[in-house]
């Protein structure tokens, strides 16, 4: 099922890399900010680092709901773009913008409601006492971030990944600069500790959509999408069209992150040092995942364009090229984590116990990186096909029914400890990779048959 031993023309790799490199830099930039947060907060001690870890795991789950819904815009705009239907693309953009602002506000309300319930998760009391400031500031940053995602997904649907990269990198640098000031009190900023990392994130995310708005207005090719903005074009039907694609994507992403949240909670049962080590490992997993996710985003864009052109062969070859690139990237990270885990951990924390635990966890991560690359790149192609329902079901099977129970059994029944938690998650990733690739092949086979029947009718 994982056999992708094809000799592909170079152009498929080149086209994938041309689109994916800016996305990779953009997504990697976001991960670098999370790494910077962890590194800088980690210098304050294990407890503040654990508080950021727990906050991130909760907030990211809710944020993924909005991110998944926003991602529906890319394949839908992609089809309109290759068919030169600018008005149709603009209508989708306007409805997506309204929908995403509403989702951002609802996400904030949900997270504010969740915060008082964290005390019932059997987490260390000192960690819970330290997380409120970071938690709330990062929560309120979701609304401007959802506006930014609307611009980002629209332009990516048209094959432009450059502007979102430039804005993300610029605002990430701003975030890191503000981190230094607000966390440690340098350069005349108030010293806020871990809360300062949340304040920096809020300011940087507020700047992102404002800069994007200016760029789109100044660029003649994209200004059209703003100038024909009309409230009469807002309709439940169009927003439902976006939700039909976006909600399954959001559900799939949230389920995967929910399993990681459950893993974080299980890690917390081993103590604050293990929870801090888990934050280091999860940060690096997120970094390598984001790079492969950049390749997956390119597959979404290219496959949606191929669908618009009704080119089945290119769908296959663009997807397999993306898988090859994704696997190659993850093999490199597997070597880094497997042989340099202790060195990586020492960049985040000076606590010897945290470093030792992190190094052990990185060994497990090295074994599942390839499967992580396979599952996300095949999933990107499925999103380009607007095939989102079955991946959602497969995510439930992989992460809810396999990853979480396996993590508990491996850690607490077979007594593998914190490494067992990640071993269980690995079983879920392997299952997801198998099912997503199988789903892609089945979907393309169906499209091929449909085209053949139309051609011969």
Describe this structure in words.
This protein has one domain (10-456). Helices cover 85% and strands 0% of the residues. It has helices at 10-42, 46-71, 73-82, 86-114, 125-128, 132-140, 142-157, 162-184, 194-218, 220-227, 236-268, 272-309, 312-346, 352-384, 389-413, 417-456. The longest helix has 40 residues, at 417-456. The model has no long low-confidence stretch (mean pLDDT 86).
Poorly predicted runs: none
Number of E-state strands: 0
Number of helices: 16
What fraction of residues sit in β-strands? under 5%
The 3D shape can be described as globular
**How would you sum up the major sheet?**
none
Mean pLDDT value? 86
Q: Helix-strand pattern, N to C? A: HHHHHHHHHHHHHHHH
Q: What is Rg?
A: 22 Å
The CA-CA distance between the termini, in Å, is 33 Å
How much helix is in the residues?
over 70%
Q: Structural class, from secondary structure content? A: mainly alpha
Task: Please provide a brief summary of the model.
The protein has 457 residues and is mainly alpha-helical. Helices cover 85% and strands 0% of the residues.
């Amino acid at each position: 099922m994982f056999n992708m031993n094809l000799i592909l023309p170079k152009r498929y790799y080149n086209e994938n890399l041309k689109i994916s490199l800016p996305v990779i830099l953009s997504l990697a930039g976001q991960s670098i900010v999370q790494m910077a947060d962890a590194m800088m907060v980690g210098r304050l001690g294990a407890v503040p680092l654990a508080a950021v870890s727990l906050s991130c795991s909760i907030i990211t789950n809710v944020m993924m709901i909005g991110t998944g819904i926003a991602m529906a815009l890319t394949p839908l705009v992609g089809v309109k773009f290759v068919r030169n239907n600018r008005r149709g693309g603009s209508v989708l953009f306007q409805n997506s913008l309204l929908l995403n602002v509403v989702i951002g506000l609802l996400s904030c309300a949900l997270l504010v409601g969740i915060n008082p319930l964290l005390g019932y998760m059997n987490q260390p009391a000192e960690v819970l006492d330290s997380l409120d400031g970071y938690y709330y500031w990062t929560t309120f940053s979701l609304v401007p971030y959802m506006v930014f995602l609307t611009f980002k997904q629209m332009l990516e649907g048209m094959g432009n990944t450059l502007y979102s990269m430039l804005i993300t990198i610029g605002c990430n640098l701003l975030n890191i600069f503000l981190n230094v000031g607000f966390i440690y009190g340098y350069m005349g900023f108030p010293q806020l500790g871990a809360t300062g990392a949340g304040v920096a994130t809020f300011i940087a995310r507020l700047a992102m959509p404002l800069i994007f708005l200016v760029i789109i207005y100044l660029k003649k090719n994209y200004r059209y999408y703003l100038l024909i903005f009309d409230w009469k074009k807002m309709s439940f039907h169009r927003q439902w069209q976006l939700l039909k694609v976006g909600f399954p994507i959001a559900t799939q992403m949230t389920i995967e992150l929910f399993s990681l949240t459950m893993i974080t909670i299980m890690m917390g049962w081993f103590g604050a040092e293990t929870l801090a080590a888990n934050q280091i490992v999860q940060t690096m997993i997120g970094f390598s995942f984001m790079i492969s996710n950049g390749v997956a985003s390119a597959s979404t864009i290219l496959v949606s364009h191929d669908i618009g052109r009704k080119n089945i062969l290119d769908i296959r070859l663009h997807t397999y090229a993306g898988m090859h690139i994704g696997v190659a990237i993850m093999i490199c990270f597997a070597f880094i984590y497997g042989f340099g885990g202790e060195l990586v951990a020492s960049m985040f924390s000076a606590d010897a116990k945290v470093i030792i635990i992190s190094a052990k966890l990185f060994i497990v991560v090295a074994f599942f990186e390839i499967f992580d690359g396979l599952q996300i790149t095949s999933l990107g192609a499925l999103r380009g096909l607007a095939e989102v329902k079955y991946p959602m079901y497969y995510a439930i099977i992989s992460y809810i029914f396999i990853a979480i129970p396996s993590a508990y059994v491996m850690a607490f029944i077979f007594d593998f400890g914190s490494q067992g938690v990640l071993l269980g998650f690995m079983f879920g990733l392997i299952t997801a990779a198998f099912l997503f690739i199988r789903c892609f092949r089945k979907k393309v086979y169906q499209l091929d048959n449909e085209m053949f029947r139309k051609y011969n009718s």
